[in-house]
Inverse folding.
């Protein structure tokens, strides 16, 4: 029983970290209307940008800001140049192009930093025990940062002009355009913010372990599964999906063993698409 | 102007005479050809050049002492680029153009796996330093031996080492790999034989955290853990073991728990006391002293020592079988290394003894070089180290 509780707790921690890039992914889908798989490359880029900033003496929050800006800017350029021109021909060509962009970014990182793994130079602390359960102070801290980021994103969506414009555009692009919201600007904002969140997510996950050019590729399936599970296009759905995927992945270790962890993501997508294609919270519960 | 013409009859006669001449006459003119196929570039590029150099030095010594069967030995060196494609191209050239009797020193398991079928189909002998279990399970018909210990030998010796440290409850952490299941079974056997218990977990090496896996392990409360992964996943695993407050012994492969891992972890107390193991050269042996001299290195790596053994064994096998083909090597290589006889550690001494009609028993720089039927070595020495204050410290070679 304790083992299950501990696995659920571990799942909450990894779910919180997963939620940040999942929100970015789903927000981009809501506005741009295609699944942007270049998040794998962008997450890696964000992780390395944050790593470079951290090594240069920035604190965690400052490094996260650097990761956000670098990943957002580069993601925006790729969207503008490679993906958005293809969206007019349908979501599929753009999605395929985004897979290619992800590979390009991954290999650019490989070219600049090499294949070696790198770790953020953070002291590793022993866990704190609560009865039979244990949690790591650093992971708690990282999780707290992730929760703050999520709150900021939701506040921005609810209260700022940009957030409202993005929600309007996601809900009904034509109507939003009639109201004077310029769709290309909203698309750019969505791309920048979404990719920035993905970049921060890459760094948050890297803080806990280590980073290499494949960091993003490893979490791509989990991000996608979280977004689909919650309902593609729904930010609260992405958060819910991320926590559920995080916990399911950790519980799966107890039930079917760690090598089958990747199957959890696929299985979740399969179930959702067959039983509730709109996801748990539906498409437009922004 | 005078023209020199060869009539058709004369030409025909000449050809017939050449074909009819005893093959021995032609053969004596031909040198014996063998080859090294080592990674001069790519991931193994730091090992291949020294390997090729030492092999060439052995051949030079043998030639200076009169060659093999009265014939000069020519060593061809090719680069496999640590890449199966390049390895196959190079092997094709060695077999079809150079017509070598043996290829020595293939390093990466992927290269060896790709090159081996070419070798056995063309009856060319292959000596390798690759470790994957699957290699000696290929249908090589005896045309392959390897001097690198396989998983069975490595895990057995590691388990015995842990038992010697007093371990009673051993846990094996191994990533999903071709050697995962066999590693667990072998370690379980060793633990049970010593009267202990064993638990295990196969993990996904792409995870960013192993907290739940470590929780499962902590329930078993082991006093020793084998971490059989590679560097990236072992970094994450060691950090999580430290966070969880695990205080028992930890051991892993020296190729995974290396300087890079220590830098990666970045905190010495996380890796403090962790043991590593690696197949070792035969420290103190005459053969290794010769490798040191030939390579100019104070501590030659295991692969260089192994390729030294390859050349010596192959040349002596040819002398015993009185022939310079891959099949002769296949049929005689075990007569060089096992079954008793005069102890030798180099081909020059061995060839003299063989010429005098004596039996030889070669013990090499990498170990005794005794092979089983599949081509695996039966035993070799292992080097055990322990990390103290961020540096590996020698525990023992046994």
């Amino acid at each position: 029983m304790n083992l299950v509780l501990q696995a659920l707790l571990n799942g909450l921690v990894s779910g919180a970290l997963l939620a940040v890039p999942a929100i970015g992914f789903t927000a981009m889908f809501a506005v741009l209307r295609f699944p942007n798989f270049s998040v794998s490359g962008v997450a890696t880029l964000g992780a390395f940008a944050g790593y470079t900033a951290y090594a240069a003496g920035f604190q965690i929050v400052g490094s996260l800001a650097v990761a956000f800006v670098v990943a957002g800017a580069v993601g925006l350029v790729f969207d503008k140049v490679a993906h958005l021109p293809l969206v007019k021909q349908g979501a599929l060509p753009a999605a395929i192009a985004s897979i290619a962009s992800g590979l390009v970014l991954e290999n650019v990182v490989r070219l600049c930093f090499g294949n070696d793994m790198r770790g953020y130079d953070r002291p590793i602390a022993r866990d704190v025990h609560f009865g039979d359960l244990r949690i790591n102070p650093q992971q708690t801290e990282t999780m707290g940062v992730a929760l703050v980021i999520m709150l900021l994103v939701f506040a921005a969506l609810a209260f700022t002009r940009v957030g409202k414009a993005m929600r309007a555009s996601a809900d009904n692009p034509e109507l939003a355009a009639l109201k004077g919201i310029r769709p290309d600007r909203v698309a750019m904002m969505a791309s920048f913010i979404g990719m920035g969140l993905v970049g921060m997510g890459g760094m948050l996950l890297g803080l806990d372990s280590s980073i290499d050019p494949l960091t993003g590729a490893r979490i791509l399936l989990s991000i996608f599964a979280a977004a689909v599970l919650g309902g593609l296009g729904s930010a609260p759905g992405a958060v819910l999906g991320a926590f559920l995927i995080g916990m399911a992945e950790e519980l799966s270790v107890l039930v079917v063993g760690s090598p089958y962890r990747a199957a959890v993501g696929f299985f979740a997508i399969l179930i959702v698409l067959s039983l509730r294609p709109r996801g748990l919270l539906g498409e437009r519960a922004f | 102007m005078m023209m020199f013409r060869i009539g058709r009859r004369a030409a025909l006669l000449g050809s017939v005479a050449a074909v009819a001449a005893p093959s021995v006459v032609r053969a004596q003119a031909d040198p014996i050809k063998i080859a090294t196929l080592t990674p001069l570039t790519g991931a193994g590029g730091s090992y291949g050049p020294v390997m090729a150099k030492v092999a060439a030095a052995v051949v030079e010594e043998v030639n200076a002492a009169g060659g093999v069967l009265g014939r000069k030995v020519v060593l061809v060196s090719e680069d496999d680029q640590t890449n199966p494609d390049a390895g196959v191209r190079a092997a094709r050239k060695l077999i079809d153009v150079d017509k070598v009797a043996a290829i020595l020193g293939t390093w990466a398991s992927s290269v060896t796996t790709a090159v081996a079928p070419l070798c056995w189909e063309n009856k060319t002998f292959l000596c390798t330093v690759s470790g994957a279990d699957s290699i000696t399970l290929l249908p090589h018909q005896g045309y392959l031996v390897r001097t690198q210990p396989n998983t069975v030998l490595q895990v057995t010796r590691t388990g015995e080492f842990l038992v010697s440290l007093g371990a009673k409850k051993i846990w094996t952490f191994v990533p999903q790999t071709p050697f995962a299941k066999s590693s667990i079974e072998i370690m379980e056997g060793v633990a049970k034989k010593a009267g202990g218990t064993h638990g295990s977990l196969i993990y996904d090496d792409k995870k960013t955290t192993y907290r739940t896996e470590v929780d499962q392990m902590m329930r078993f409360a082991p006093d020793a853990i084998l971490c059989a992964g590679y560097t990236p996943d072992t970094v994450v695993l060691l950090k999580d073991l430290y966070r969880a407050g695990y205080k028992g012994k930890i051991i892993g492969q020296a190729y995974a728990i290396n300087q890079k891992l220590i830098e990666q972890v970045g905190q010495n107390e996380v890796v403090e006391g962790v043991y590593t193991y690696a197949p070792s050269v035969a420290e103190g042996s005459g053969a290794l002293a010769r490798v040191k001299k030939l390579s100019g290195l104070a501590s030659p790596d295991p692969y260089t020592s192994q390729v030294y053994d390859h050349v010596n064994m192959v040349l002596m096998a040819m002398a015993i079988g009185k022939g310079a083909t891959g099949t002769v090597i296949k049929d005689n290589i075990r007569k060089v290394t096992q079954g008793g006889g005069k102890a030798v550690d180099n081909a020059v001494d061995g060839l003299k003894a063989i010429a005098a009609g004596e039996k030889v028993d070669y013990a090499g720089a990498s170990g005794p070089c005794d092979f089983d039927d599949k081509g695996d070595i039966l035993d070799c020495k292992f080097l055990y180290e322990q990390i103290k204050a961020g540096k590996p410290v020698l525990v023992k070679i046994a």
